[in-house]
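Recap from last week: sequence in, structure out.
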Amino acid sequence: MTITTSSTNTTLNYPMEFESPSEATIKENARYITEFMEIKVKFIDFSHVFGQRSFWMIDHDSKPVDNRYFDCPVSFTSEEDCLESFIHSSRYHESFDWLMTVVDKIESMPPLPIWPHSKFRVLIKNNVCQIDVGENTIGVDGTFFVSGTNKLIATYHAVKIFINWYNKVVTGWIGIS
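Predicted C-alpha cells:
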C-alpha cells in the first residue's frame, strides 16, 4: 500500500496495497461517507389515510443513487433506525454506482478559502486514485495518492482518507471541536 500526502511531505510505503475492507471497516466508513453525503431521513405521515402506518425513509433528494429510490430502507420505529438500515445496506465499498456519487460531490465542492482558485479533482487510473485541490497544487496539503488491488478499492480508500482530511481541515477552520 502506498499513501502519499503532501501535508507531511513523506510517502508512507507498506508491503501491500489496500485490499477489500473488513465488515467492521465497511460499516464505519459507510457512516462517515453517509454523513459527508448529507443523507437525510424524512417522516412520511400516512396516519390520516385509511389508518395506514406512518414511517421514516431516506429523502429522495438526498439519496446517493437514483435507482435506489424504492430500495431505500424504511422504518416504522425511528429516524435513527432508518438511517442505520441505510448505512448497513450501502454499497460504497463494492459499487462504482454508489462511489462515483461521492467522487462527484468532491469534485463539485467549492474551493477552500486557503486555495480560492482551485477545485478538488479526483483522478482514477488503473489501481491508483489521486485526489487533490486542483491543477498545479501537487505537493500542497490535501493531495493524496492511494493504490489498491483494483481501481474501486483505491478510490474507496482515497475517498475515505479525503473525507477524514476534509473534516479535520473544515473543523479546524470553523472552530468546531
